[in-house]
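For consistency, the fold was encoded as tokens, which produced the following:
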Amino acid sequence: MSIGVYSPAGGIPYYILRYTKGAIYIQAWASALLVQLDWAMRRPSDVGRVTGTDSHAFFTDKTINQLLAVAGVMQPISRYKNLLRKGSIMNRDERSSVMRIMSDIIKADGIIDSREIDSLSAMCSKYCIKDDDRICATNITLSQAVKTLQNSFPSLGHDILGDVTNLAMSDKYCAREEALFLLGMKYSLATKDIQADIISVVSPEVYFPNNQILYIESEFDAKANAQILQRYKEIVAESRLAGFDFVYIPKIIEHYQFLTDDQLFKMISFLYPQASSDRLDVATKQLKSFTTKDFCQNLLVSKLKLQELNDTPPAVLIKIGQSLCNQRFYTNFLLLELDRDIVDTIMDFLYQFGSLYQTRVLDYLQEKKGRFVYRGFYRQLLELIMLRKGIKSSVLIDSVKGEISFPEADVIVDKLHRREKALYALFLVESPSGGINFTKPSNPKQLERYERRMKALQEKYGLIYEKFGGERANAPRLEVPEIRLPMISLIKRQINKLSSVLYHVDDYIIHRNIYGNYGVGISANNCLCRDFDQPEVMPIEESKSWQRILAL
């Protein structure tokens, strides 16, 4: 650190006082004595900032006190040393962030000890935390608090880690929950050679235990996966000794592949009797083909809103506790990137944990062929897949049932007549080629082409209308705005009602672009169909009857 205050007397050379590792250095430069706080403090009106350097000299505290006296500063140098660890050089966000961390470590083990409260009072005094800061702390997540402190002056993280550790140990015992929290703070605030962050998310419907070390990646990393597979048994064994389950998705999926499709279907049907057969089929296929990338993007990001994982390198995700923020419970995760030797990083975490908490009980899952494990991560994965929230679903045009449905989400588009269902299906099949433009041109030559196009379009619509049980000749005239527009509005309203279930519902809603073309945003390969002549669900582009319609 460096400190200084302008001298009220002119013509006296000024100095920078730099405090580093217990030593005081003075840099002589320019024309007035300066004491500067070079960290993230609010700068008083009489404080300047020096960027140039000249000579360095070591001075005793006595000498520095004399210089400060010349400058009219009557506080001894010890006072300024203490500012390093005082809240007077911190802004409100920083003080509130410290309070959030202190509060969470006290609550971590579910026991509030009077010694912890006494220690907290001392910490509040040290960091100058006021009542307003305490209130502000209840409105920020642990993730926000950590990010604030990560962007503060460098040594603050180390100071806070030491104080948080002392606070956790004030009752002479470190619980497992406290050990996890302390490790989260150490990696995110005080460890520089490993990239680590804290992620806070509104507590999801699916329970995450705090004994999981979950491997994640948003894109497949061949090198990282090769390292894990090479030493997988070692990682699992060491994790279990520390009381953790190392979760590696490819190994989880191998377990499901031991079961036949029929066996898996029946077991999921038993667990979720309310689910449709289409949805059960989807879940069966997912459990046998899921990748770590799929888990990360389709479940953690889409369903649980862990947006920080949308673009993450190989990493492990570890739950470190919960916080109450704005009257809502948040689950906190440590995201530990594995950009170095993967196994060494995981082993370091386990070693650090073991130094804080001694595991006494070993409990791990027994995997055998023909068994459907319904506990631990196996249950967690299935519940995430079956969770009807934030689902990236295909669209099924079902002529057999007369429905438009989203099979992965297990929902149908309600309260639509066959005329709206047929119109939505028409937009689905026409969107890949640019959509439909109903704007009538004024140019005679263009008008002729427009009329031919509308005639072909009406013929397609009639055939689709017939698939939903209507008579082709009675299909509504789409070129008439008074008929077409109310139908489009109704479709939009009904699909928009599914926003709590579908991921980015706008992709499924009919929109008009700047060129006047109406269309739907989902890709063609996500459009499925089922017909009387073809009862199996298949992509529309593979259906002969739909290809005949598209060829008109």
Q: What stands out?
A: The CA atoms of residues 208 and 319 lie 7 Å apart. Residues 444-467 form the longest helix (24 residues). The longest strand covers residues 315-325. The radius of gyration is 32 Å.
